[in-house]
Amino acid sequence: MKEPITFAMSEAFKDMLAQVTCGELDASNCPVRDVMDHISGKWTSLLLFALAARPHRFGELKRAVPDISQRMLTQSLRDLQQDGLISRHVFATVPPSVEYRLTPLGESLMPALLGLVTWANAHHDQVRAARAAFGQVVEEV
SS3 of 37, please? Predict the structure, then answer.
């Protein structure tokens, strides 16, 4: 049998892991679940990467993510704004124009999100192969 894979964990991470696995941390107040619930949305990473490049107006974001509905784009932007990851700026033009941009908090998220995206790109073929193999095992059972 193979040895389990190990990786270096910070003491803070070990403490949080111990709290979660021992049931000492209330799941409804878990900071990881709370934040991940919002940033793991289907459209969130695409919107954040678009805004990391530069500020965008609503229509530009709609074109940057063409398969998102207007309703979902509006809701996703509101959620990101509510979490303090993006800001909304209204310009006094006729008609008024609105621009969205990352906040400093949103900018601080980008290295971690980039790491996840890099990992996903590097391992996508393996994940797809594992899904296919799992599907075959389920069909055989």
Answer: helix
